[in-house]
Specification:
Length: about 375
């Protein structure tokens, strides 16, 4: 396998296969901390942990790439602590690849107060009310301190719906920050990769404008931001597919914060390589489990005497060892083990879904495979 390094000192991407009849593709990312086979789903490790799991669980579940949240790790424990350990990998004892976001979305959604200017984002911590400033330089510095394999540019996130003027202003600012992030990243001379983030709301002309600007700057990979922010699902698919079609074929493509099993299948079919979402972990803690037959709410009384596994077709630790009745008991008793076992199952489901999609792409049967998944999940209500 020959890798083409698009920029010096960076993560390398090889496109292994385009599937017939769809835009679905399989690829391989080569990072300092290991190889990643795409399409890939990244569990979210918000504060240096995937909630209720330890790194050994992630290895057993065959997680290949983990997402860390720059905003949360910057506020607590902070770079001064993480730097003592030489980065996030050693601090949390996860030795596989890590992608970190820029913190822009967390500031948008969590900060008590925020003031956006061309220089960056001044915000008030949701933890203690202290004031902080994120700039293109600082988000690169923080992610470099974390030792991320893949870094994200700082972007100006807008809500849905949003007026054209606000989106255009945010777009101009995002592109300015993207260039400043790249300049700061190149000076680091690390073996990481920096991804640019496409914005533009739900306006196709602005999305195209964003992609053109980011292509001119030139990044090792590209993310599509500003989706799954309240827009109708059909619009998310439309804008996602539109952007994917315009992005470079030779670079990895990442849609941020998405989503349901149906979302993953639809957007892999449109050409996306990478995803992250809190859904499998958050929903596990709320008692919702993903199965080959749709979702179930394990807290429901219907499972109190159910001797079967969560999913008869699943071979995860939870399904091999425990009954629905036991998981129902744990959840209704508010036992901490409920969170752990539910999360193991849901992460396993998502990882296996991506593995099966990759195999289907390599064998030119993705279209048939996607129909089988959507026959279950296109008609299944999934709580967010």
């Amino acid at each position: 396998m020959t890798f083409v390094d698009p920029l010096p000192q960076t993560v390398q991407f090889h496109l292994d296969k385009h599937c017939q009849n769809t835009h679905a593709r399989a690829g391989t990312l080569k990072t300092l901390h290991g190889m990643v086979e795409t399409p890939i789903f990244m569990p979210v490790g918000t504060a240096g942990t995937v909630k209720s799991l330890c790194p050994r669980d992630l290895v057993d579940l065959k997680v290949q790439l983990l997402l860390g949240n720059t905003y949360h790790l910057y506020l607590r424990p902070g770079c001064d602590i993480i730097r003592i350990f030489g980065g996030l990998h050693e601090f949390m004892q996860w030795h596989g690849p890590i992608l970190t976001d820029s913190g822009g979305f967390q500031v948008f959604s969590l900060a008590k107060l925020r003031d956006v200017s061309d220089d960056g984002v001044l915000f008030q911590s949701h933890i203690d009310g202290s004031r902080h400033m994120l700039t293109p330089q600082s988000v690169v510095d923080i992610q470099d301190c974390l030792g991320s394999d893949i870094l994200m540019c700082l972007d100006d996130v807008v809500p849905y719906p949003c007026d054209h003027t606000r989106i255009q202003d945010a777009l101009t600012r995002t592109h300015k920050w993207a260039q400043e992030c790249k300049d700061a990243w190149l000076k680091k001379k690390t073996h990481s990769a920096l991804f640019g983030i496409v914005q533009g709301g739900m306006i196709k002309d602005l999305r195209r404008q964003s992609i053109d600007a980011l292509n001119e700057i030139d990044f090792p990979g590209y993310a599509i931001g500003g989706l799954s922010v309240g827009e109708p699902q059909s619009l998310m698919y439309e804008i996602g597919a539109y952007c994917l079609d315009l992005l470079p074929q030779s670079k990895p493509r990442y849609i941020m914060g998405v989503g349901t099993p149906a979302d993953l299948v639809h957007l892999v079919a449109a050409g996306c390589d990478m995803f992250d979402c809190v859904m499998p972990t958050r929903n596990a803690r709320n008692g919702q489990l993903f199965t080959s037959r749709g979702t179930i709410n394990i807290k429901n009384a219907a499972y109190k005497e159910d001797t079967g596994p969560v999913d008869p077709e699943c071979n995860c630790y939870t399904c091999r060892q425990f009954s629905r009745a036991y998981l129902n008991h744990l959840y209704r008793s508010r036992e901490l083990l409920a969170y752990r076992l539910n999360t193991i199952h849901n992460i396993h489901f998502y990882i296996q879904l991506m593995k099966c999609m990759r195999e289907a792409i390599l064998e030119d049967r993705f279209e048939l495979f996607s129909k089988s998944v959507l026959s279950v999940y296109a008609r299944t209500s999934v709580a967010s």
